[in-house]
Amino acid sequence: MLQEFFPFVSIEVLPEFEAVLGSTANLPCQVPQRPPESGIKCIFWYKDDEVMSVYTVDAREGGQNTLHVPSDKLRSRASFDPNPWPPVLKMVNMKEGDAGVYYCRVDYRWDRTYMYTVVLKVIVPPQKLVILNDHDEEIIGTAGPYLEGQSVMLTCEAIGGKPSPYLSWWRSDEPLKGGAPVSLHGQVRSDYTFIPRRSDLHTTLTCKAVNNNITGPNTVSVQIDLY
Question: What's the CA gap between 183 and 189, in Å, rounded?
Fold first, then answer.
Protein backbone atom coordinates (compact mmCIF):
# COMPACT_ATOMS: atom_id res chain seq x y z
CA MET A 1 0.00 0.00 0.00
CA LEU A 2 1.14 3.54 -0.70
CA GLN A 3 0.67 4.39 2.95
CA GLU A 4 3.91 2.49 3.54
CA PHE A 5 5.69 5.09 1.38
CA PHE A 6 3.78 8.07 2.82
CA PRO A 7 3.08 7.21 6.49
CA PHE A 8 2.48 10.86 7.38
CA VAL A 9 -0.67 11.28 5.28
CA SER A 10 -4.27 10.86 6.39
CA ILE A 11 -6.35 8.20 4.65
CA GLU A 12 -10.09 8.29 4.03
CA VAL A 13 -11.83 5.48 2.17
CA LEU A 14 -14.43 6.75 -0.27
CA PRO A 15 -17.36 4.80 -1.70
CA GLU A 16 -16.75 2.47 -4.60
CA PHE A 17 -17.35 3.75 -8.12
CA GLU A 18 -18.38 1.65 -11.11
CA ALA A 19 -17.86 2.21 -14.82
CA VAL A 20 -18.79 0.06 -17.78
CA LEU A 21 -16.09 -1.05 -20.21
CA GLY A 22 -15.60 1.65 -22.85
CA SER A 23 -17.46 4.32 -20.88
CA THR A 24 -16.29 7.23 -18.68
CA ALA A 25 -15.37 7.32 -14.99
CA ASN A 26 -15.13 10.40 -12.78
CA LEU A 27 -13.00 9.76 -9.70
CA PRO A 28 -13.36 12.41 -6.98
CA CYS A 29 -10.48 13.83 -4.99
CA GLN A 30 -11.82 15.13 -1.68
CA VAL A 31 -9.31 17.94 -1.36
CA PRO A 32 -9.91 19.88 1.87
CA GLN A 33 -10.95 23.45 1.19
CA ARG A 34 -7.91 25.01 2.78
CA PRO A 35 -7.27 28.78 3.01
CA PRO A 36 -5.85 30.27 -0.21
CA GLU A 37 -2.54 30.95 1.52
CA SER A 38 -2.07 27.18 2.00
CA GLY A 39 -1.39 26.95 -1.74
CA ILE A 40 -1.56 23.62 -3.59
CA LYS A 41 1.84 22.56 -4.92
CA CYS A 42 1.05 19.23 -6.57
CA ILE A 43 -1.70 16.65 -6.91
CA PHE A 44 -0.69 13.06 -7.57
CA TRP A 45 -2.93 10.14 -8.51
CA TYR A 46 -1.58 6.66 -7.75
CA LYS A 47 -3.07 3.26 -8.56
CA ASP A 48 -2.84 0.14 -6.41
CA ASP A 49 0.74 -0.44 -5.24
CA GLU A 50 2.42 1.44 -8.09
CA VAL A 51 5.05 3.90 -6.85
CA MET A 52 4.90 6.08 -9.98
CA SER A 53 1.84 8.29 -10.31
CA VAL A 54 -0.69 7.67 -13.07
CA TYR A 55 -1.56 11.38 -13.24
CA THR A 56 0.22 14.47 -11.91
CA VAL A 57 -0.87 18.10 -11.59
CA ASP A 58 2.17 20.33 -10.99
CA ALA A 59 0.93 23.70 -9.73
CA ARG A 60 4.21 24.99 -8.30
CA GLU A 61 4.42 27.72 -10.95
CA GLY A 62 0.70 28.46 -10.64
CA GLY A 63 -1.82 29.91 -13.09
CA GLN A 64 -1.34 29.08 -16.76
CA ASN A 65 1.98 27.42 -15.94
CA THR A 66 0.25 24.53 -14.15
CA LEU A 67 1.27 21.24 -15.77
CA HIS A 68 -0.98 18.21 -16.27
CA VAL A 69 1.03 15.05 -16.84
CA PRO A 70 -0.77 11.71 -17.41
CA SER A 71 1.21 8.48 -17.36
CA ASP A 72 1.95 6.56 -20.54
CA LYS A 73 -0.76 4.09 -19.48
CA LEU A 74 -3.49 6.75 -19.50
CA ARG A 75 -2.10 9.31 -21.96
CA SER A 76 -4.98 11.07 -23.74
CA ARG A 77 -7.62 9.05 -21.87
CA ALA A 78 -7.35 11.06 -18.65
CA SER A 79 -7.78 14.67 -17.55
CA PHE A 80 -8.12 16.44 -14.21
CA ASP A 81 -10.79 19.08 -13.64
CA PRO A 82 -10.15 21.22 -10.52
CA ASN A 83 -13.28 23.34 -10.90
CA PRO A 84 -16.12 21.15 -9.54
CA TRP A 85 -16.33 20.13 -5.91
CA PRO A 86 -14.81 17.73 -5.35
CA PRO A 87 -12.33 17.99 -8.25
CA VAL A 88 -12.29 14.89 -10.42
CA LEU A 89 -9.96 12.73 -12.45
CA LYS A 90 -11.88 11.94 -15.62
CA MET A 91 -11.02 8.75 -17.48
CA VAL A 92 -12.57 7.86 -20.83
CA ASN A 93 -12.72 4.65 -22.88
CA MET A 94 -12.47 2.53 -19.75
CA LYS A 95 -10.42 -0.66 -19.97
CA GLU A 96 -10.68 -3.72 -17.75
CA GLY A 97 -7.17 -3.07 -16.45
CA ASP A 98 -8.24 0.37 -15.16
CA ALA A 99 -10.02 -1.28 -12.23
CA GLY A 100 -8.27 -0.89 -8.89
CA VAL A 101 -7.67 1.33 -5.89
CA TYR A 102 -6.76 4.94 -6.68
CA TYR A 103 -5.09 7.34 -4.27
CA CYS A 104 -5.27 11.10 -4.67
CA ARG A 105 -2.40 12.82 -2.85
CA VAL A 106 -2.46 16.60 -2.40
CA ASP A 107 0.70 18.49 -1.38
CA TYR A 108 0.28 22.04 -0.03
CA ARG A 109 2.93 24.74 0.28
CA TRP A 110 2.06 25.66 3.85
CA ASP A 111 -0.14 22.83 5.07
CA ARG A 112 -0.06 19.10 5.65
CA THR A 113 -0.33 16.51 2.88
CA TYR A 114 -3.66 14.76 2.37
CA MET A 115 -4.46 11.50 0.61
CA TYR A 116 -7.85 10.04 -0.24
CA THR A 117 -8.82 6.66 -1.60
CA VAL A 118 -11.24 5.72 -4.37
CA VAL A 119 -12.09 2.18 -5.43
CA LEU A 120 -12.92 1.80 -9.12
CA LYS A 121 -14.65 -1.26 -10.53
CA VAL A 122 -14.87 -1.79 -14.29
CA ILE A 123 -17.90 -3.78 -15.41
CA VAL A 124 -17.49 -5.96 -18.49
CA PRO A 125 -20.80 -6.80 -20.23
CA PRO A 126 -21.26 -10.30 -21.66
CA GLN A 127 -19.49 -10.76 -24.98
CA LYS A 128 -22.32 -12.81 -26.45
CA LEU A 129 -25.82 -13.98 -25.52
CA VAL A 130 -27.45 -16.88 -27.37
CA ILE A 131 -30.40 -19.27 -27.10
CA LEU A 132 -29.61 -22.95 -27.76
CA ASN A 133 -31.75 -25.99 -28.55
CA ASP A 134 -31.41 -29.34 -26.77
CA HIS A 135 -28.49 -30.20 -29.08
CA ASP A 136 -26.57 -27.08 -27.97
CA GLU A 137 -27.14 -25.50 -31.40
CA GLU A 138 -27.76 -21.77 -31.59
CA ILE A 139 -31.30 -20.77 -32.51
CA ILE A 140 -31.60 -17.64 -34.62
CA GLY A 141 -35.01 -16.10 -35.11
CA THR A 142 -37.40 -19.07 -34.95
CA ALA A 143 -37.42 -21.98 -32.51
CA GLY A 144 -39.10 -25.12 -33.80
CA PRO A 145 -41.38 -26.17 -35.27
CA TYR A 146 -42.44 -28.23 -32.25
CA LEU A 147 -45.26 -30.68 -31.71
CA GLU A 148 -48.04 -29.36 -29.54
CA GLY A 149 -47.86 -31.01 -26.11
CA GLN A 150 -44.23 -32.12 -26.56
CA SER A 151 -41.79 -30.98 -23.85
CA VAL A 152 -39.26 -28.43 -25.11
CA MET A 153 -36.09 -27.21 -23.40
CA LEU A 154 -34.30 -24.03 -24.44
CA THR A 155 -30.99 -22.89 -22.99
CA CYS A 156 -29.82 -19.31 -22.66
CA GLU A 157 -26.05 -18.94 -22.60
CA ALA A 158 -24.05 -15.81 -21.76
CA ILE A 159 -20.38 -15.83 -22.68
CA GLY A 160 -18.05 -13.64 -20.64
CA GLY A 161 -19.03 -10.75 -18.42
CA LYS A 162 -17.58 -9.43 -15.17
CA PRO A 163 -19.22 -9.83 -12.76
CA SER A 164 -21.05 -12.91 -14.05
CA PRO A 165 -24.46 -11.89 -15.42
CA TYR A 166 -27.80 -12.99 -14.01
CA LEU A 167 -30.06 -14.62 -16.60
CA SER A 168 -33.86 -14.51 -16.70
CA TRP A 169 -36.56 -15.68 -19.12
CA TRP A 170 -39.49 -13.55 -20.29
CA ARG A 171 -42.63 -13.82 -22.39
CA SER A 172 -43.31 -10.22 -23.44
CA ASP A 173 -43.30 -8.36 -20.08
CA GLU A 174 -44.09 -11.50 -18.09
CA PRO A 175 -41.20 -13.15 -16.20
CA LEU A 176 -40.96 -16.92 -16.59
CA LYS A 177 -39.67 -19.52 -14.17
CA GLY A 178 -36.45 -20.71 -15.74
CA GLY A 179 -33.73 -22.85 -14.27
CA ALA A 180 -31.31 -21.25 -11.82
CA PRO A 181 -28.31 -19.78 -13.69
CA VAL A 182 -25.23 -22.02 -13.60
CA SER A 183 -21.70 -20.66 -14.15
CA LEU A 184 -18.97 -22.77 -15.74
CA HIS A 185 -15.73 -21.84 -17.52
CA GLY A 186 -16.66 -18.20 -18.10
CA GLN A 187 -20.17 -19.05 -19.28
CA VAL A 188 -23.52 -18.73 -17.53
CA ARG A 189 -26.49 -20.90 -18.54
CA SER A 190 -30.17 -21.01 -17.68
CA ASP A 191 -32.67 -23.56 -19.03
CA TYR A 192 -36.34 -22.98 -19.72
CA THR A 193 -38.58 -26.02 -20.17
CA PHE A 194 -42.18 -25.76 -21.33
CA ILE A 195 -44.93 -27.71 -23.09
CA PRO A 196 -46.13 -25.69 -26.09
CA ARG A 197 -49.84 -25.19 -26.70
CA ARG A 198 -51.56 -23.84 -29.78
CA SER A 199 -51.74 -20.45 -28.05
CA ASP A 200 -47.91 -20.39 -27.98
CA LEU A 201 -47.70 -20.20 -31.78
CA HIS A 202 -45.59 -17.15 -32.76
CA THR A 203 -45.02 -16.32 -29.09
CA THR A 204 -41.73 -14.52 -28.45
CA LEU A 205 -39.48 -15.78 -25.66
CA THR A 206 -36.66 -13.54 -24.47
CA CYS A 207 -33.60 -14.16 -22.35
CA LYS A 208 -32.12 -11.19 -20.48
CA ALA A 209 -28.61 -10.92 -19.06
CA VAL A 210 -27.86 -8.30 -16.39
CA ASN A 211 -24.61 -7.66 -14.55
CA ASN A 212 -24.92 -3.97 -13.60
CA ASN A 213 -27.43 -1.21 -12.88
CA ILE A 214 -25.83 1.32 -15.23
CA THR A 215 -26.72 -0.08 -18.64
CA GLY A 216 -29.79 -1.94 -19.84
CA PRO A 217 -29.83 -5.75 -20.06
CA ASN A 218 -28.44 -7.72 -22.99
CA THR A 219 -31.32 -9.57 -24.66
CA VAL A 220 -31.87 -12.31 -27.21
CA SER A 221 -35.25 -13.55 -28.44
CA VAL A 222 -36.77 -16.39 -30.44
CA GLN A 223 -40.26 -16.90 -31.84
CA ILE A 224 -41.99 -20.22 -31.20
CA ASP A 225 -43.23 -22.17 -34.23
CA LEU A 226 -45.54 -25.21 -34.11
CA TYR A 227 -46.52 -27.91 -36.60
Answer: 6
